[in-house]
Design a protein that fits this description.
With 321 residues, the chain is of the alpha/beta class. Helix content is 26%, strand content 31%. The strands form four sheets. A six-stranded mixed β-sheet has the order 6-9-10-3-11-12, with helices on both faces. A four-stranded antiparallel β-sheet has the order 2-1-4-5, with helices on one face. A three-stranded antiparallel β-sheet has the order 14-13-15, with no helix packed on it. It is globular. The C terminus is likely disordered. The structure holds adenosine-5'-triphosphate and magnesium ion. The site of magnesium ion has 4 residues, from helix 1.
Length: 321
């Protein structure tokens, strides 16, 4: 790696919570205009590292140094990291469901004129931002009416409104279906073309292989390995080995399932969207579940207690203990 093209360097970062050393001397180097993936098992310290970088945990609450564009940064809050061009999209989506896309995008960064919010300008800019992330949707739409994939795109549109130079995506595809995930990865490629560097935390090795220019593996709060990805070639076994600290002989052990009799069956199940009248999220769906072990059959009413559900025909055949 050529040191001169580094956009980010985190040196010896240590972060302690009461009773937990979440980060223990982590080092991270990210090349400018690249997609850099960070992997590690649950609890390895990935999100904490990104929260340190983005000022969620302010300077003084951790040890070590952060260099962005070669200059040492001492962010006291998120606002300061955003001013420098670092924007984080957290693992949990943080937008307010009852507000519109425009309101969410400009929340805390309202465009004002003579002390009043310039709604017309905000709306106009939102349309442009949505275009950039490939969403053709009314900017007045409430967030609660969007699917998770669309919400994720709005989060990115919001990041773009802040003149982002380093975008951090913490597990962006964990709640997305295959199509939405592919869309998002494509969008990240486009951002890279436009000169935006991305750090992506992901557990999905196929996505890491598809998009990364470099990978860093963190285990127990320490950097285990960091290397460039050449021509999309990612050695998944190597990553897993680094993540868990030992080789996994068989990633998909043979498993013989022994389904029991059908205990629960739904026929012609129709579910209306609780928020949008007339929109069906499920239409005449039929399925059945075979459960080998049912701990407590009284949970079954929960199954059918979705709001405004009309169950045409439910038949329970047998409950196995
Ligand atoms: N606010 C907090 N207070 C106390 N401990 C915390 C806090 N945040 C994180 N931790 C602990 O720090 C360690 C690292 O957590 P972190 O959330 O950074 O892991 P992660 O790699 O992002 O995991 P995941 O893949 O599950 O998101 C864990 O042991 C976690 O329990
Ligand atoms: Mg995390």
């Amino acid at each position: 790696m050529q040191e001169q093209s580094l956009i980010l360097e985190m040196k010896d970062i240590t972060k302690t919570f009461p009773g937990v050393k979440a980060l223990d001397g982590v080092t991270l180097k990210v090349e400018s205009r690249s997609v850099h993936s960070i992997c590690g098992e649950n609890g390895a310290g990935k999100s904490t590292l990104m929260k340190v970088l983005s000022g969620v945990y302010p300077y003084g609450s951790y040890e070590g140094k952060i260099f962005f564009d070669g200059k040492e940064m001492r962010f006291r809050n998120i606002k300061e990291s955003e001013q420098a061009g670092i924007v984080i999209i957290h693992q949990e989506l943080t937008m307010i469901p009852e507000l519109s896309i425009t309101e969410n995008i400009f929340m805390g960064n309202e465009i004002t004129e003579k002390g009043l919010i310039n709604w017309h300008e905000q709306r106009k800019q939102t349309v442009e931002l949505l275009k950039k992330v490939g969403l053709s949707i009314n900017p007045d739409t409430l967030i609660k009416h969007l699917g998770v994939g669309q919400q994720q795109l709005v989060e990115i549109a919001k990041a773009l409104s802040k003149n982002v130079r380093l975008l951090i995506l913490d597990e962006p595809t964990s709640a997305l279906n295959e199509n939405d995930s592919a869309n998002l990865l494509e969008l990240m490629r486009g951002l890279k073309e436009k000169g935006i560097t991305c750090i992506m935390i992901s557990h999905k090795l196929n996505e890491i292989a598809a998009i990364s220019d470099a990978v860093t593996v963190i285990r127990d709060g320490q950097t285990v390995e960091s290397y460039p990805v050449v021509a999309g070639q990612v050695d998944e076994n190597k990553i897993i080995r680094s993540m868990v600290g030992r080789s996994i002989e068989n990633r998909y052990p043979e498993h013989e399932s022994k389904p029991g009799d059908i205990i629960f069956e739904v026929k012609d199940w129709c579910v209306e969207d609780p928020e949008v009248e007339g929109r069906m999220v499920c239409k005449n769906s039929s399925s059945y579940n075979q459960v080998v072990f049912v701990e407590n059959p009284r949970f079954f009413p929960w199954y059918i207690s979705v709001r405004r559900v009309s169950v045409m025909d439910i038949s329970m055949h047998q409950v196995l203990k």
